[in-house]
């Protein structure tokens, strides 16, 4: 081996750990956060911000039940952690099961909240299979398309496709990227619908024994502009797991090329919502 290749190899060996270290220190855009009514009695808004700063969450997509939790966090006006508010169509936990079907209280609530003019999307909402053909779901999809809002759907692939038929071109964040949807189907959906972005919380197949699943790595590198990370603090105990969740994401990011890792960590959310 000549001196030049040896020098290049030595430089590469030096830079790779530095790149991984930089990824570990990069801010995270948390694209799936709930500050629900139950959590508000356990962790205060200032404590939430302190936790985010501790783990270097640099921006948050907030969707709470009811939306008062999101409004409380926004009221702190933290300049270092911009909050992207989404309107969740739930007043109470049982609404997740029938919000889309003749629930006039939910419909009035959504109409009232939209008048604030602050929301960047609607969700996270739960919808599965043929329920996505409910008239109110179709109305919400078309409203989002017309107003330039995102949808944030906890849904199976069947429901996602039905939603996209109601409002072709509407932009949709797929919570948990289907959670248990096969990766072949995920890839097919991403190829067919360029307006889908996948959020990765609760995808238990992301890692195998602490190593990024090769099939997932292939997908993340094929679509580095279309994935987001999320803590999904849907129940109060998840707040005590945020540090562990973020550490797991950083472990995954460190196994990706730096540019792809940067996009998935923060850059995609930044581009989607015009953040600094």
From TrEMBL:
SUPFAM superfamilies: Metallo-dependent hydrolases. Keywords: Signal. InterPro entries: Amidohydro-rel, Metal_Hydrolase. Residues 1-22 form the signal peptide. Gene3D superfamilies: Metal-dependent hydrolases. Residues 129-275 form the Amidohydrolase-related domain. This is Amidohydrolase-related domain-containing protein.
């Amino acid at each position: 081996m000549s001196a030049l290749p040896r020098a290049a190899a030595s430089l590469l060996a030096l830079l790779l750990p530095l790149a991984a270290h930089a990824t570990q220190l990069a801010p995270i855009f948390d694209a799936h956060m709930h500050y629900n009514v139950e959590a508000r009695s356990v962790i205060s808004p200032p404590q939430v911000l302190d936790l985010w700063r501790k783990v270097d969450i640099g921006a948050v997509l907030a969707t709470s039940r009811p939306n008062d939790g999101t409004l409380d966090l926004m009221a702190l006006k933290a300049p270092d952690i911009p909050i992207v508010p989404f309107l969740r169509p739930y007043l109470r936990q049982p609404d997740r099961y029938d919000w889309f079907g003749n629930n006039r209280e939910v419909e009035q609530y959504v109409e009232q909240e939209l008048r604030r003019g602050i929301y960047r999307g609607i969700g996270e909402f739960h919808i599965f299979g043929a329920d996505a053909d409910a008239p109110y779901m179709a109305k919400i999809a078309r409203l989002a398309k017309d107003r330039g809002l995102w949808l944030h759907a906890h849904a199976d692939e069947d429901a996602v496709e039905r939603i996209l038929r109601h409002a072709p071109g509407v932009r949709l964040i797929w919570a948990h990227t289907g959670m248990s949807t096969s990766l072949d189907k995920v890839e097919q959906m991403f190829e067919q619908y360029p307006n889908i972005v996948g959020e990765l919380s609760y995808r238990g197949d992301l890692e195998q024994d602490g190593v990024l699943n090769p099939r997932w790595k292939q997908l993340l590198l094929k679509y580095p502009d279309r994935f987001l990370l999320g803590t999904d603090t849907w129940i109060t105990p998840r707040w005590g797991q945020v540090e562990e969740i973020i550490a797991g994401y950083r472990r995954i990011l460190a196994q990706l090329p730096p540019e792809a890792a940067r996009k998935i960590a923060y850059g995609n959310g930044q581009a989607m919502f015009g953040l600094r």
